[in-house]
Amino acid sequence: MRNALATLGQMAVAAAVAVVVAVVSLVAISRVQWPAFPSSNQLHALTTVGQVGCLAGLVAVGWASRRWRWPARLGGLVFVSAFTVVTLGMPLGATKLYLFGISVDQQFRTEYLTRLADSPALRDMTYLGLPPFYPPGWFWIGGRAAALSGTPAWEIYKPWAVTSFTIAVAVALVLWWRMVRFEYALILTTATAAATLAYGSPEPYAAMITVLLPPVLVLTWSGLRGGARGEEAPAGRTPDDEREVNSTLEAERETSFTLAGEEEPRPHASGWAAVIAAGLFLGFTATWYTLLFGFSAFTFAVMGLALAGSRWRHGGFRAALDPLRRLAIIAVIAAAIGCTTWLPFLLRAVRSPISNSGSAAHYLPADGAVLTFPMLQFSLLGAVCLLGALWLVVRARSSVRAGALAIGVLAIYLWSLLSMLTTLARTTLLSFRLQPTLTVLLVAAGAFGFVEAVRALSARGRAWERATPPLAGAVGLAAAIAFSQDIPDVLRPDLTVAYTDTDGNGQRGDRRPPSSEKFYPDIDHAIVTVTGRPRDQTVVMTADYSFLSFYPYWGFQGLTSHYANPLAQFDLRAAQINKWSKLKSADELLHALDSCPWPPPTVFLMRRGANGNYTLRLAEDVYPNQPNVRRYTVDLRAALFDSPQFVVHSAGPFVLAIRKPVPGRR
């Protein structure tokens, strides 16, 4: 227990260091007038300099760790945090928006952040009166940070995304150094952080889970094996090399084990702390990101069932019960934590009608129709993944770490096949979103494989022992620099959108003329002036959903059914809007609004169309077709708003129709 608390303390220190490094770095970057990333190479050049400096610092603290243990660990936290911030924050230095700007997925994510910045209550991002369907964890913390700092939610998205991922990387380093030697922990954390930055950073809350998943899988596999450890380390390996069982998390630091694991338990090797930690992680993912929660639970279940089957073959029914009991405890802990955010939705779903309940999974791009093999790519990343795949094949049955990562990789392929099969039920498991996770797991395995290869070569003789480490270090450092400096180019499409989208101040990061979003402040002022109500008491019908990303108004209809709360009855609302388009007079519209089964819109934000009509460009789900969304236009007659009860206001291409407040009406 004492060591477990010590580990929690180290994780807290790591998080604090990450926050300080991220905040100081981002503030320093923001105070300089940088050129836009898409039109200048200066930010890329400075990013490379920062990355090289951080990697050199990591090499230095790794070298110094044997003599100055705790200063080296603190230095490792600082440098790995700085590496993350400079890689992500520097290319975004001249814009206030995050990767992919305020477009598509980032639009609804920013809307969610804006909603939870307006109030700490757990509420749906769009629909008035509904509990949240999407896990609010990341957005709630970011929203509270925005509220406490007095910063608009859209503006805090970027610093919160960078800071939160930096925290996850620092915590991952702590988890690794509790299970392997500190030098190896630095290699593992840097490698997996770089891979996640390159391929998972546009979705920051998913990136946090992704970078933590490899050490958590090792921890979980060790915990499920529980009291069945005890085999000796292979000949030739010293206790310092193998780092025997760590009683802090009760995860094994040595690599020797068998799947059956029938040996007698060692003292302090019961694995219950690891089981509890796995349950806490799974509960955390339940409040953070549904897909990775489902995948993590699936992987843990595969681990437990595989171990139970092996124990049953070797020791009978009673031996098989232990991993299943541990798996059940993980599930109970996760369920208890997950209920903090899921219970309001589940209770409402029991007594309220639901429609479009599967739309969130109605997406099957080309990447979701095939299996991905990053280890077969002809690239530096492909070589690392290939080394990792080979190491998993060779060591899966003799290493806790390899076994855990191998099960994670196999679980992704199994999940992908199941996702393809579920298309028969007109849905998917969104397996394409696990591609960054697959890459990170293979990169972690590749790092282990590289270390073991270096150790094997060093053991061949004195000459090999002298020559191999420096050569391996030089090759590894060169590879790390080469991959890291290419990350901004991998992210270039997302970075470009971050500079070309118009932010909440009506400005673009590339300093070119802004788009129609520059009229949003005028629209917001008109709404507040006419209604006289707080923004969170006003429902807006609009197809320009970025307006809801900048201001905490409620929407009558969401961007698409894929982002909509199932309790909102997206399809029925769409039918209601279509009925309004058939109306001919203001009296008919007013009657329709007053009899609406949902809180009706009091504001219509539209575009000018042909023949004096006002238009809304909406979307419908056409899965399994690709694209999975069909856009269509709804025309509302101008005569519908020709009434003393409406104030019609023009702002650029927008037409704003605001219903005047009447005492006693919602």
Automatic annotation (TrEMBL):
Residues 227-248 are annotated as: Disordered. The keyword Lyase does not apply. Pathway: Cell wall biogenesis; cell wall polysaccharide biosynthesis. Residues 10-458 form the Arabinofuranosyltransferase AftA N-terminal domain. It is a multi-pass membrane protein. One of its GO terms (molecular function) is glycosyltransferase activity. It is found in: Cell membrane. Keywords: Cell membrane, Membrane, Transferase, Transmembrane, Transmembrane helix. Its main location: membrane. Residues 228-240 have a biased composition (Basic and acidic residues). GO terms for cellular component: plasma membrane. The keyword Transmembrane helix applies. Residues 487-659 form the Arabinofuranosyltransferase AftA C-terminal domain. It catalyses: Adds an alpha-D-arabinofuranosyl group from trans,octacis-decaprenylphospho-beta-D-arabinofuranose at the 5-O-position of the eighth, tenth and twelfth galactofuranose unit of the galactofuranan chain of [beta-D-galactofuranosyl-(1->5)-beta-D-galactofuranosyl-(1->6)]14-beta-D-galactofuranosyl-(1->5)-beta-D-galactofuranosyl-(1->4)-alpha-L-rhamnopyranosyl-(1->3)-N-acetyl-alpha-D-glucosaminyl-diphospho-trans,octacis-decaprenol. Its EC number is 2.4.2.46. The chain crosses the membrane at residues 12-31, 43-64, 76-94, 160-177, 184-200, 295-312, 324-350, 370-393, 405-425, 437-457. One of its GO terms (biological process) is cell wall macromolecule biosynthetic process. Belongs to the glycosyltransferase 85 family. This is Galactan 5-O-arabinofuranosyltransferase. It comes from Mycobacterium scrofulaceum.
